[in-house]
Every structure is written in structure tokens, then in C-alpha cells.
Design goal:
Chains A, B: It comes from Paenibacillus phyllosphaerae. Chains A, B: Residues 145-158 have a biased composition (Basic and acidic residues). Chains A, B: GO terms for molecular function: DNA binding; DNA-binding transcription factor activity. Chains A, B: This is DNA-binding MarR family transcriptional regulator. 2 copies of one chain form a homodimer. By secondary structure, chain A is mainly alpha-helical. Chain A has one domain (2-112): Arc Repressor Mutant, subunit A (Orthogonal Bundle). Helix content of chain A is 58%, strand content 10%. Chain A contains 7 helices and 4 strands; from the N terminus they run αααβααββααβ. Chain A has helices spanning 2-11, 22-26, 31-43, 48-55, 59-71, 93-116, 119-136, and strands spanning 46-47, 75-79, 87-91, 152-155. Chain A has a 3-stranded antiparallel beta sheet. In chain A, helix 3 crosses helix 6 (93-116) and helix 4 (48-55) packs across helix 5. The first copy, chain A, starts with a helix and ends with a strand. At the A-B interface, helix 1, helix 3, helix 6, helix 7 and strand 4 of A face helix 1, helix 3, helix 6, helix 7 and strand 4 of B. Chain A binds a DNA duplex (30 and 30 nucleotides) through residues 13-14, 30, 32, 47-49, 57-65, 67-68, 83-87.
Chain lengths: 158, 158
Amino acid sequence: MQQLYDLFLKTGLRPFAFMTETQPLEQKVTRSDLSTLLILLFRGDLTMSELAAEMGAPLSSMTSIAKRLERKGFIARATSAQDQRVKRVTLTQEGKQIAKESEQMMLSLLGRLEAVFTPEELEQFTMLVLKAARAFQSDGPSKLPETKKASVKITIEE
Amino acid sequence: MQQLYDLFLKTGLRPFAFMTETQPLEQKVTRSDLSTLLILLFRGDLTMSELAAEMGAPLSSMTSIAKRLERKGFIARATSAQDQRVKRVTLTQEGKQIAKESEQMMLSLLGRLEAVFTPEELEQFTMLVLKAARAFQSDGPSKLPETKKASVKITIEE
DNA sequence: TGAAAGAACTACGAATTCGTATTAAAGGAG
DNA sequence: CTCCTTTAATACGAATTCGTAGTTCTTTCA
């Protein structure tokens, strides 16, 4: 419990700094850039606002990130024909390439979890983390999808 | 599982932005400032290097943070008599005040967890999170203390 | 219809973090 | 004792994030 506290204190600055997998990719792009590319890969083309919402970031930050990614040639931004205010963001070929690499890296991270967790633990971990996240989510409408699950009995090893 | 993925993508930018308790305090100090004050409250006076290590931040960042906190009057830095290179960092009265407030806020956060988790779930949550953190910790010597615990059977509700 | 309200972005500046270079003290090796 | 290496910390500049203030369309409603 105290250890959870400690972990929390360290997590404010440089979150997830302990992960080594991210380093090679972070030579080319920022972590937020990387998140953006992954989101585009998963969700397809999005507007700036949608992207910002998916990232949980303010729109002004999203502008900075998009500008960077555009300069590096990883995304393209085109103003929508229906509504000329909105810009639709698309992955370029090169961007798709990086996004795929990022996905591999994420899978590798997930692999680490699977290496130390039993499948049941992994499921339980997921459920507990989501439950915790929901608990912290002020009292506003939960943005995270509700996971209704029947009770599960599992054994933690080690 | 996919939801864990999503949560991860959002956590890079603005980690723990979903917590409302931190907002009143973050008017006065940064989140990293807050971590620093808490660490000083728990561990007592520390040197700059020790502080950086506790924070998991580079020393140069620690310098910036300490300069800020000193300017605001929350800490004092005195060069050690034994070794004139090291600076010992101390909480001022006002700093102690803020640190105590921060501690209250942390307890309130913990209270949220206790509200939605059963004691067993909380224990399991702690164990699994620590286990996961250790798994991500490259292959270097684990900085987090090993939690050897016997197997536990628990039931997750909801 | 046309003026006001609202929406989707961008611009800009301030604050923060951090890598690299630098300063200053301490600890040897000869 | 003198030179060299190591250690503790700061200085500085670049990059990032984000709040606030525009800018440019779109919608509304009187």
C-alpha cells in the first residue's frame, strides 16, 4: 500500500519512464506523437477535435502535436468540404509505417505483462485498473465504458 | 483489454488528469512540486541527488523544481558542512503546511479507492500493479521492493 | 436576411522538463 | 603537494504542453 503511494509519487514526472521498449521509437517522435499515430491507426481518419478528445488533451496542444507530425511528414491535414472549419487528419504512408512499429512495441509491452501474469491475473488486473480509473473520474458521467462482469475467482501466484 | 490500451494512450499526456482532488492544490504548486514536498514530508530532509532519485527525475529537473519551491518559500537549501558540494533541502513551515494539505488530498484519493474496492480487491490491486511495474522495469535491478506474498484467492465484485 | 452566438481551429506566450555543458568541491595516485 | 578523476549541483537552451485570445466558418433566430 505504501508502495503504491511511492509508485504514484514517481509517476507524475516522466510517466512510464521505466519502459525500455519505447526508447528506439522515441528517438523519432515524442510519446504524444506516438499516441496520436496509434489512435489514427486504430480509429482511422479523425478531425482535430476528435483527436484531442481521444488523446484527452486540449485542442491547442493537439494543434502543436499535429503541426509537428505534419512537418515530419507522418500525417496530412485537409480541410473538410462539408464544413470548412474542420480539418481531417490522415496518416501518410510513412506515418502508417511508424504507427505499425508503435503497435508492435505496444504488443511487446503487453507481452511483458503476459509473461508475468497468468491469464486470470491479466484479466483481473484489467478489471481492477478500469475500476480504479472510474473511481477517480470525479462524479461526471463515466467516459470509460462500463465493464459489467460476473464475479470471478482467481488465484494470484508468486 | 482493449480498454487498458485506450487508458494507456490517454495517460501519456496529462497523467492523472481525471483526478479532481488535485486541482485546488495545483493552483499553488505544480504536481512535481507537490511530489517533492510530500517526499520531504515523509523522508525528512534530503540532498538534491537523493530527492531526484526519489522523484525518479534527472538532477537538472530537480534543480528547476527546487529553485521554484525556494522562490515560493516552501523549502530552504543549505550547503552541507561536511561536504560543501551537497545541498540539504528542508521544508519550511509554510512548505510543511502545504505538504500536509497534499497528504490529506492523497488520503482522500485513497479513500476513493477504498470506497469502490473491497479490502481484498485493494490488496490485490496493489499487488498486481506492483507486479506489473516490476515487469516493465527493463531487466535492471528492481528498484521497487519485492513483494513476496502467498497466493490469495479473491472475488471481484461488479 | 443578417446580426449574434457558437464551433473548430490556430497563434502566441508562459511554464515546465531535461540533455548537455559547466562549475566547484572531494578524493585519490604518484 | 599537484594533477586527474569523480561527484554534486547549477546554467542554459531546446522542446513540449497548454491557457487565453484571436480567426474563420456555420448556425440560429428574430
